[in-house]
Amino acid sequence: MPNDNCFVSVDENYKDKYGIPVANIRIGAHPQDVKVREFLAQKALQVPERMGAKNIAYNISPLPSQNLQAGECRFGNDPKKHVLNRYCKSYDHPNLFVTDGSFMPTGGSVPYTWTIYANALRVAHYIRDNVRI
To answer: Does one domain contain both 70 and 128?
Structure first.
């Protein structure tokens, strides 16, 4: 049942066939996502209004984007709070870089495929310029 948060966490109550805790995905609209969706909808409504449209209606789903997960390996400057540094390099495993959507705390209210692409290119440039094998 949807709740006020949308997040992925490892849950000791859910285990795979080997007994290892697995992700528990809770689906719902994060309050910030709802605010972003409404803000974007109001901005988008301005275009047809300026063109003279009347009786404009819209509907925004309260559910998050269904095609991508985010937040499993959040990045940040504190190794005690984050899995990855700002270049998406693992604090715990040398030469492990994570460039999928998991580096972002949340995916927001729209698909973020292009953000993942851009970040992967940013990390690739960092690896090219800084990692010596």
So the answer is: yes
Q: Which domain holds residue 35?
A: 1-64
Total structural domains in the chain? 2
How buried is residue 6: exposed, middle or buried, by Cβ count under 10 Å (0-12/13-18/19+)?
Answer: buried
Backbone phi and psi for residue 12, each to the nearest 5 degrees, phi listed first: -60, -20
- Take residue 54 and report the two structure tokens written for it: 């009347």
Bridge partners of 15? Answer: 21
**61 touches 40 (CB < 8 A):** no
Say if residue 51 is in the same domain as residue 70. Answer: no
List of the chain residues with pLDDT < 50: 1-6
Instruction: Report the predicted TM-score, pTM, of the whole model to 2 decimal places.
Output: 0.51
Give the model's pLDDT for residue 71.
76
Amino acid letter for position 6: C
Whether residues 130 and 103 fall in one domain = yes
